[in-house]
Amino acid sequence: MAVINAQVSELIKSLRKKGWTTSAIAKHLATTGITASLRTIQRHCRCAVVEKKKERKPHKLTSQVMEIIDSILRADDELPARKVKELLQSRHNITIGLHSVRKAVRTLGWNFGKPR
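^ Transposase, sequence as received from the core. Prediction below:
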């Protein structure tokens, strides 16, 4: 088993940050005369984790959608959230989750429930 010095370790980390796979790094090291197992390369790559930015979806609960929900509830204030969701889909072609509809109804102040 070969001992990996600090210079080779930095080379492994820099190649990993560039997006090289473990096997590609092993082949590159083999061409330069350095023998390293895949496990050794993986151990040195752990420090050089490439962080991928998550692509966020835009929020569906915009102010326009809130106004539409408010207008639906002004017409009939006793509609359940499931019916409001169905009306949003059929009339306005807006697909939104039931949880988001309930949250919007609650923030608009249309929550009905048992008094405590």
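Residues 17 and 50 are 6 Å apart (CA to CA).
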